[in-house]
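Hey everyone, long-time lurker, first post.

I ran two proteins through the pipeline my lab uses and got sequence/structure pairs for each. Pasting them in order. The first:
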Amino acid sequence: MRSPFDFIIEPKGLRYNNSVSVGDKKLILNTEISNHEYINRQGIIKSIPTAFKTVLEKGDNVIVHHNVFRRWYDMKAREKNSRSFLDENTYLVKEDQIFLYKRFWQWRSMPGYTWVMPVKETDEFSIEKEKPLVGIVEYSNVYNKKDIVGFSPNDEFEFVIEDKRLYRVMDKYITIKYESERNEEAYNTSWAQGG
């Protein structure tokens, strides 16, 4: 089955990532279906659209928008699936809802997005653990890995990819690439450790 304009994607795992293993028990971290932080954002492409060419291929692992696999409540408190829902293992996804893809064990950014790791705060008088609006490039089509960049406020969105916390920033919101030698250190505690 192929769609003319949508990718057909299967979620990798469950729709929600809201539990962790503690010993031999499973602990549920959140029971709200509307909390976007616990929605699975990883899928596998089952087929690509027929109407246009794309860099993506069947079988690629992808990171998608949190609304793809999400459930929500309408105004009458009825539980609904997202617009993308076809069945429990099949979702129709637009290309602009795909942000990152993995092929041959390597993640690659979709055009228009840069992925940065947060930077450890070095100001001894700050109560923050991360330096605001600065990051170390992890994946990008524009910047080199390990470049230090700055971005505008409220334009970063947090994702956890392979136990690394990264911010997705649109390329147009990156305001500076620091050229001088900087000794920035990544601040990236593992999500599984409660970072």
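...and the second, right after it:
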Amino acid sequence: MTTKPTIKPLSNRRMRQQVLKIGGRTVPVTVTTNPRARKLIVRVHPATGEVAVVAPSTRALERAMDFARSETDWISDRLAAVPTPVPLEPGDTVPFRGRLHTVRHEPQERGGVWLDAGPRKAWIAVAGRREHVPRRVRDWLRAQARTEINEAVGQFANALGLKPTRIALRDPSTRWGSCSTTGVLSFSWRLILAPPYVLNYVAAHEVAHLVHMNHGPRFWALVEHLVGDTRRPREWLRREGSGLHRYGLV
């Protein structure tokens, strides 16, 4: 499931660092080439605010910054929407399975990371040294994501009599899941931050691609057969998804 195609730089030797003036501020811009790009593309990372221009060829590099300047209003809007990062320090709040939890440091305890949830408030408790708290919370969230995504994929794949080649966990900025032609399913670990029905939907979506490598009517009918309502999780991701990228940036 993709909001925009992911285009990676061909080589660091074809990358240039430029600056752009937007609203009185200086914004760094990375300009790079990729022959798979069909035209000049401007990107703003939804979590970090990093601005990049991708050109289809070295000849197009000369027009890259002019193109970026023509898109300053769009870039400014995207930069304004970049949320304040949450590094997962003690006292920070982070959603886990759609419910807000406060990170709590318990240096006197043993046991790594654990949940302490009540009817009104919930915590992610972390033992050990203070400087290790953010990393331990990130690692714990990724481990929880792997467990729940594997379970969801297994459930939907078994229902279809299928088995993916492999399940990978990543941290992409523009997609929540993908399915390769070789049957490898990849997912964003940040799905563990969303409500369970959202994670289940993305898992069903990518499992359905094992049968239909497109987004045609038969594909959507299969997703609905697996997970039921698809509108609610899609609307949640459209409305709330970009905010999930603010947590645990490294």
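Reply from user beta_strand_b:
Welcome! Quick read of the second one: Confidence is low (pLDDT under 50) at residues 2-13. The radius of gyration is 20 Å.
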